[in-house]
């Protein structure tokens, strides 16, 4: 029999790093949080620049409200937020994400720099962080209104994670997916994505539309076959809007963009349900393009099934999925019949 191990308490720094590594599993998870912060700050333009799939360098520049210089010393500590004050708010809002935890988490596993200016400040301020704390005094400097957040050397101190993410190309494709998704969902905001020192890969204009952005990001073959859907179900506290391809379009892979309460998420059960409706109309093994935005009572959504909060569960799932299915089905039927009449005419 071996000697029993000695139980020791982990240092706070190590605990925080482990927790952060669970929340941020890859660059695209961090980017999603940063995009949501820029959207929360009412930005109309968001520019993202990436090096090595975001592993070396991930920068997001917005033109939103900015951060007050007085707040810069605590902004990266855990549970610091400008978005809720009372516990009662938390019940409704906490389901969206990790209130006050995103910047803190990132600062535990990367070098994080904030350059920010509010409209009323005379100049911008720059601050760098490590493990939730300021690394050096805040510096006044030149800068535009809004916030620029730079994340460098992500996972530099989480060696196992760094080794697991070896392909910048794959990480970049996840980043494209996240930026593309948020650009479609927030079509009033202009999004730009580029690799450092290279041409722009994705650019949507300010005050665009969902369909126009699908055209820019996924091409005209999808955009021209899109139909809008809409549904209100007060009894289930469900409201749905979206764009789905008609039966003329099919693709061997297919795309499902799902937002629940404005967060990009995944739900295997919704995915399956949508596929099952289309399977009657599309050739075997082919799929549709579907963008769905669901708004549910936040109290009915459980985002805690996965640490990155990507996969969600919600109450009344069966009933809600039935409603989504019948909404899509009736839209497909209506377009199918017009197509038949058109060919007969
Ligand atoms: P949360 O978004 O849950 O409040 P974060 O750690 O993501 O937590 O951000 C902490 C705080 O930093 C926010 O509440 C907000 O006040 C400020 N902040 C972060 N990013 C931005 C941004 N791009 N523009 C303005 N304020 C920001
Ligand atoms: Mg946030």
Automatic annotation (TrEMBL):
Ranges of residues in domain DNA mismatch repair protein S5: 214-333
Subcellular location: Nucleus
Domain of life: Eukaryota
Family: Belongs to the DNA mismatch repair MutL/HexB family.
Protein's UniProt name: DNA mismatch repair protein S5 domain-containing protein
Protein source organism: Arctia plantaginis
Complete-protein stretch covered: 1 to 345 of 708
């Amino acid at each position: 029999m071996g000697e029993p191990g000695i139980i020791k308490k982990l240092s706070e720094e190590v605990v925080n790093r482990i927790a952060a590594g669970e929340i941020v599993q890859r660059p695209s998870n961090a980017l999603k949080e940063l995009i949501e912060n820029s959207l929360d700050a009412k930005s109309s333009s968001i520019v993202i620049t990436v090096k090595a799939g975001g592993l070396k360098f991930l920068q997001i520049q917005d033109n939103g409200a900015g951060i007050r210089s007085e707040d810069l010393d605590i902004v990266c500590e855990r549970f610091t937020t400008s978005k809720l004050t009372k516990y009662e708010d938390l019940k409704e809002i906490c389901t969206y994400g990790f209130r006050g935890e995103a910047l803190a988490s990132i600062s535990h596993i990367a070098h994080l720099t904030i350059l920010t200016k509010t409209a009323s400040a005379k100049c911008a301020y720059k601050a760098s962080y490590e493990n939730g704390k300021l690394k050096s005094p805040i510096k006044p400097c030149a800068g535009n209104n809004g916030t620029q957040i730079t994340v460098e050397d992500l996972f530099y101190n989480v060696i196992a994670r760094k080794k697991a993410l070896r392909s910048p190309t794959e990480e970049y494709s996840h980043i494209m997916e996240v930026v593309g998704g948020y650009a479609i969902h927030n079509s009033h905001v202009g999004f730009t994505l580029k690799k450092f020192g290279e041409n722009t890969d994705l650019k949507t204009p300010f005050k665009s539309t969902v369909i126009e952005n699908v055209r820019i990001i996924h091409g005209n073959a999808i955009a021209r076959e899109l139909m809008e859907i809409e549904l209100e179900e007060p009894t289930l506290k469900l409201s749905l809007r979206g764009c789905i391809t008609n039966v003329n379009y099919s693709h061997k892979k297919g795309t499902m963009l799902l937002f629940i309460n404005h967060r990009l998420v995944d739900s295997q059960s919704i995915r399956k349900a949508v596929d099952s409706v289309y399977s009657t109309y599309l050739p075997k093994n082919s799929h549709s393009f579907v963008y769905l935005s669901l708004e549910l009572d936040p109290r009915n959504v459980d985002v805690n099934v996965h640490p990155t909060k990507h996969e969600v569960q919600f109450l009344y799932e069966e009933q809600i999925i039935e409603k989504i299915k019948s909404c899509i089905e009736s839209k497909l039927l209506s377009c199918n019949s017009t197509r038949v009449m058109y060919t007969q005419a």
